[in-house]
Every structure is written in structure tokens, then in C-alpha cells.
Amino acid sequence: MAEEREQWGRQLEFILTMIGYAVGLGNVWRFPYLCFQNGGGAFLIPYVICLVLLGIPMFALECAFGQYGGKGPLSIWSINPTFKGLGISMVVAAALIFIYYDVIIAWGLRFLVASFTTDLPWVECHDCSCLLYNQKNVTSELVETLRYNNSLNIPCPNISINGSTSSPSELFFSKEILNDSGSIEEAGEIQWQLLIANGVAYAIVFLVLLKGIQSLGKVVYFTATFPYVLLTILLVRSAMLDGAYEGVIYYLTPRWERLADASMPNALGDVGDNCNYKHMFIIVIFIVPFSYCFLIIYYLPRDAFMIPIINCLTSFYAGFVVFCTLGHMAKIKNVDIDDVTKGGPGLAFIVYPEAIASMPVSTLWAILFFFMLCILGFSTQCYVLTNTLRVISVEDHF
């Protein structure tokens, strides 16, 4: 007799779980940066076209494929054995996502723990390379003085007027959090604090999923909704900062000439490597989470349209939080917003911490921001692991 499969307590629990899976860290650091980098409001035109023509249809198609076949990704390709390896690769991709997502969550936990202090640890300069950071009207006399008479009380003979400088938040991330060895050829030592944070992240996911989807269905009421509460709180606070309006205008103002530009940064946010505008499709694939085997398991026609739209609207909403903050940073530094923006993890773990440090009651905002990042990571992580295990364990009971 076939084993009876677990069922969601309510349809709402399933919808919230899917939203938790779809809405993740990329909504905070990928979409706003890409929108800013590629024409502001003008970026939304090809993006919405690709979402309608590719994102939503592919999302619905994968769901419908699983519903029609009545099987999971490992066995559904009996419809065409030539593609059997595709189902296996989807499960492997999901497993890899689980591993790297846990690492990013560990970073967020480290920052969260480090935030529980009166003076945030990434505010003060503790390295020669940041002595001249944000210094205005740097003269050769000032440089000569700082070489041997500075707040670090150590000699810094290599600093110069035209030399590169790093922000304290950048140094905290690279040296304190990652302890970057500088080269992939040098493995470096085990980072015990990150290792413990990684273990804690795994343990939290295990406890959430201890009773399967029955416990997950209850947890998502919090994990899928609370990030929106925190985003709203951060948006209200960021909108009150000096320079926030300029940041929003920079974010939304269409730069129509970018629509005629055949090149743009790729979906990973690498500004150095340009590619054709056809890679807008890749951006949609990154943001609308299909092809990871999970959608084959479930299908509700309404959700296939609703979840991608919620996902993309969340990305757009998060952009206001990000660029209100970046506008404030540009104001206090008296530079263009171009000079304070970084893509990818740098936006979440370097730029935003530096901006938070300049806010009143900075400890509170740091705790809220990194708590939100952790919740976003955990909501995706729990869904990924739950359905990877379900794909493997109940494959024969569809």
C-alpha cells in the first residue's frame, strides 16, 4: 500500500511557502542594482515584457508539466527518456542552492550577532588602507602626518594621495567576516565563527522542518510576512534621511538612451562583462524561480501567475529602501550615487552597513536589517530542503 503523502494544512500555507521560496536575498541586492545600472525606469519596460512573455509562462508550464505527468522530476522524464538527466540535474541544482544559501545566511548571522553592541564594529577604521577614506581636501602634508601619527598608532608608510582606499565596512566584511586570503590558491585557516554560524543555520532549518510540511506550514506565517514588515519599517526610516528623495529619483528616472544601448551588465551583476540585451531573459530566469524541480510537485493555476508577480513587485519595493539609503550616502559623502553603489553581496554586506552606521540609533537598524536578511534566507532555505527531500522520498508515490 502506497504511503500517504503529507498535506498542507491550508492552501494559504502553501502560497506563503511558495512566496517565501520565490522572495529571497536576490530581491534585496540584485534587482534594485540592475534596475539602477540599466536605465532606471526604462529598465522596467523590457523587464516587464520578458516577465510576461517568459517568466510567468515558464513558471506555469513547469507547474502544469508536473500536474499532467503526476510525477516528480526524477521520474517524470519517462515521457522522454532522452531528458532523464535533466530531472537529475534539477535536483542537484537544488542541493547546491541549499549549500551556498546556508553560507550567505551564516554571513547574515555573523553580522546580526556583531550588531548587538553600542558601537557597530564596522564604523571605526582599524587598517592603514582606510585612513584616507572619506577624507576631504587631502594634502601631501596630511598624508605625511598620517603615515606615522594616526589613530591606529602604527606606521602606515604605503598610504598616498592617489592610492586606493577601502571603507571600514568593506574591511570588516573581507577581513573580519571572511578573513579573505587574497587568492583562491590560498585556502587560509578555518573561520570558526563562520563555521559555528553555518552550523546554527543548519540547526534552525532542521528544527523548522522537524515535523515536515506541517511545521513548515506554520512557520511560514512568520517567515513569509515579517520581511515585508521590516522592509516597510526600513523604508519609512530611509525615506526620512537627507538625500533619500534624490536616491529615489535616480532609481526611477528613465534613461531612455539605455533602451537603444545593445549592451548591459549580465544577470550576475558583473559590470565589467557586457552582453546583449537578450540576456534580459537571464535576469528574469534568475528572479522568477523555475527549473529547480520544486514547481513540478505542485500546481495551482492562480498561483502560477500570482507568485512571479508578487516576487517581482517585492524586488521593485525593495529598491526604494536601497536607493533611499544610497541617496543619503551620496549626500553625506558629497559624491554621485554611482560612486557608492555596489552590486551583489557588496550591496547587502558593505554599502548598507556603512549607511546604517550613519543613522541615529544605528544598532537598532542594523539588527532589523540583518534579521530581515536572515529571515529571507531561511524562508527560501526551508522550502528548498523540504521539497528536495520530498522529491527524493516520495517520488514513487505521486
Description:
This protein is mainly α and 398 residues long. The chain has 15 helices and 2 strands. It has a two-stranded antiparallel ribbon with strand order 1-2. Strand 1 and strand 2 form a beta hairpin. Helix 13 (301-333) packs across helix 14. The two termini are 13 Å apart. This is Transporter. It is found in: Membrane. Keywords: Glycoprotein, Membrane, Symport, Transmembrane, Transmembrane helix, Transport. The chain crosses the membrane at residues 12-31, 43-65, 86-109, 190-210, 219-240, 280-300, 307-330, 364-385. Belongs to the sodium:neurotransmitter symporter (SNF) (TC 2.A.22) family.
Strand sequence of the main sheet, in spatial order?
1-2
Cα distance spanning the termini:
13 Å
- Rough shape? globular
Strand count, sense and barrel status of the largest sheet are:
2 strands, antiparallel
**SSE order:** HHHHHHHHHHHEEHHHH
Query: Helices and strands: which structural class?
Result: mainly alpha
Radius of gyration: 23 Å
* Mean pLDDT value: 75
Share in β-strands: under 5%
User: How much helicity do the residues have?
Assistant: 55-70%
In a few lines, what is going on in this structure?
The protein has helices at 11-22, 25-29, 31-37, 44-69, 84-114, 140-148, 168-177, 192-208, 213-223, 226-239, 244-252, 280-287, 301-333, 345-357, 362-393, and strands spanning 263-265, 274-276. By secondary structure, it is mainly α.
